[in-house]
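Help!! Second protein's tokens look totally different from the first
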Amino acid sequence: MDNFLDKIFFRSRNFDYISQNLIDLTIQTPANRIFEALNTYSEGSEVRYVGGCVRKIIKKQIVDDIDLAVNLNPNEVCDLLKKNNISLNEKYSFLVQIFYALDIMKKNGYTHNDLHTHNIMYEKSNDYIKIRNKKFKSKPSSILDKSSTFFPSKVLSKLLFELFLFVF
């Protein structure tokens, strides 16, 4: 029984540690400006810490990068960045995250035959966000059809340039 109670209290202290470190991360880094901008954009807009920064806080490691997930479409994010004078480095981070998501989709067997900035969508369901689009397809079990673009570097370079022009 004592062991069970120790686990409960340890977990409670650990959650307090994680919560406090996420608050500190928001206050002590430029993420604060992004959080403020996103949270005031609209009543339903949300921003959350995701990925490596959360893992590093849980493991009590030094956080050296911050990943954010938002429930806005790219046009809204770009509008928000412009209106709030978010710096070039902060804008660049958003572009990197979009490309990281595309890379993950490629590694998980998804193809896309129409890469444009307005095609990056999300779906929020309970406690997770899933990237989706009608034009994303599961990789066929046989050979990929010729109409599919499987993220060659030439296409990614073009998309990066489009996103760069769109954001700036």
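Here's the second one for comparison:
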Amino acid sequence: MTYEGKSATEATATEDTIQAEPILRRTLLKNGATALGVAVLGGSMQKVVQAAGAVDTATTVSVDKFMAASRCLIQHGLSSDVGARMAGILSTKIPSLDADLDAIISTAREKNSKVVEDFFDALPDGHVKDSAHQIIFGWYAGVVDEGSTAEVFAYEEALMYQPTKDAVALPTYSFNGPNHWTDVDPPLSAMPEF
């Protein structure tokens, strides 16, 4: 007899029961909070998901058009992910962006151009040419504004950074550069013997 007159088996069973109770209470509390959250937010979350789906559908069409216009203006390898981010930002800043993209693409096709210099002068002055300048600036700088509130959408993939990529390190707290966690670590060499 050990634990207050109980056998060792009874004492172990009592200790197991005592340890299991807080886990059950926590689980019950977590499940109850989750159920309450789903019940309260269920209807509003459904509206958010539907709205997000509608935005994605609308953005996908304009991203393709945006990338087509960008490829007319810039003859470099362009990332479609960066293009999607820039299209989203520019569509909020330029109300006539969709029509401007159509004008850029149609002018480039009419001139049968291979490089931007072949058709840029033929673009209509005003908002179409301004939009073209904004797109070119965005791809090179990684931002679409020059102000202090500019939103950076591409840093490592900005075209201005590419020529100096091997000489200029991006500012980072990682000792091995940006996106180091995605690289495979080099194999360890044998420890020197003394």
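Reply: Different proteins will give different token patterns, so don't panic. Helices lie at 8-73, 80-93, 97-110, 127-141.
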